[in-house]
């Protein structure tokens, strides 16, 4: 057998082994691990009355006084997962500064507070433009408006905010946050 033929057969054996490992064994292992946590593997969907209303992982726009509002998004037309991305405007950019001040005035007027009380996440979009979370401070700012629009007492709505608040991961990573879709889904359960 010539050296060339031996090298070709060795290459073919490597190709077959790698094809089986990376084309069959690895995908099967990933699928099996995914099935151990079906909620996450299937997109972390939220259901209300048996209907899927969205994913815990992607924000959505909510308009109207009866809903908690998410942070602004620059992902396409609202929270478009196909247009994920930041605005790429720097902190000294005149357009960004103008937009932030406009948002500050709008939120302050809507929530009937002093503009200085508006938290930063009500003014700026996340890096992906798809963040489903707001800060507990922004959620607390909206409690009065939402409770009045829904005819609920404020302690009930504050309780929902508290239940929807996720603390820091491992006690040190990230910031406390409120998932807007989960919070609004909890509101619909009170109807």
TrEMBL record:
<keyword id="KW-1003">Cell membrane</keyword>
<keyword id="KW-0472">Membrane</keyword>
<comment type="subunit">
    <text>The system is composed of three essential subunits: KdpA, KdpB and KdpC.</text>
</comment>
<keyword id="KW-0633">Potassium transport</keyword>
<dbReference type="InterPro" id="IPR003820">
    <property type="entry name" value="KdpC"/>
</dbReference>
<keyword id="KW-0630">Potassium</keyword>
<keyword id="KW-0812">Transmembrane</keyword>
<keyword id="KW-0067">ATP-binding</keyword>
<protein>
    <recommendedName>
        <fullName>Potassium-transporting ATPase KdpC subunit</fullName>
    </recommendedName>
</protein>
<keyword id="KW-0813">Transport</keyword>
<keyword id="KW-0406">Ion transport</keyword>
<keyword id="KW-0547">Nucleotide-binding</keyword>
<comment type="similarity">
    <text>Belongs to the KdpC family.</text>
</comment>
<dbReference type="Pfam" id="PF02669">
    <property type="entry name" value="KdpC"/>
</dbReference>
<keyword id="KW-1133">Transmembrane helix</keyword>
<comment type="function">
    <text>Part of the high-affinity ATP-driven potassium transport (or Kdp) system, which catalyzes the hydrolysis of ATP coupled with the electrogenic transport of potassium into the cytoplasm. This subunit acts as a catalytic chaperone that increases the ATP-binding affinity of the ATP-hydrolyzing subunit KdpB by the formation of a transient KdpB/KdpC/ATP ternary complex.</text>
</comment>
């Amino acid at each position: 057998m010539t050296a060339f033929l031996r090298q070709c057969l060795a290459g073919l054996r490597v190709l077959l082994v790698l094809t089986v490992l990376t084309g069959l064994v690895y995908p099967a292992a990933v699928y099996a691990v995914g099935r151990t946590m079906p909620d996450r593997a299937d997109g972390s969907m939220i259901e209300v009355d048996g209907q899927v209303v969205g994913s815990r992982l992607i924000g959505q726009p909510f308009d109207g006084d009866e809903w908690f509002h998410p942070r602004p998004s620059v992902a396409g037309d609202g929270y478009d997962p196909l247009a994920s991305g930041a605005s790429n405007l720097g902190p000294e950019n005149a357009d960004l500064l103008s937009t932030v001040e406009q948002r500050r005035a709008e939120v302050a007027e809507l929530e009937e507070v002093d503009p200085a009380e508006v938290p930063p996440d009500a003014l700026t979009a996340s890096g992906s433009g798809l963040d489903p979370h707001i800060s507990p401070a922004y959620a607390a700012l909206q409690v009065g408006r939402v409770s009045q629009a829904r005819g609920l007492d404020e302690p009930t709505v504050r309780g929902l905010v508290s239940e929807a608040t996720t603390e820091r991961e491992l006690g040190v990573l990230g910031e406390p946050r409120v998932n807007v879709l989960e919070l609004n889904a909890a509101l619909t359960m009170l109807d």
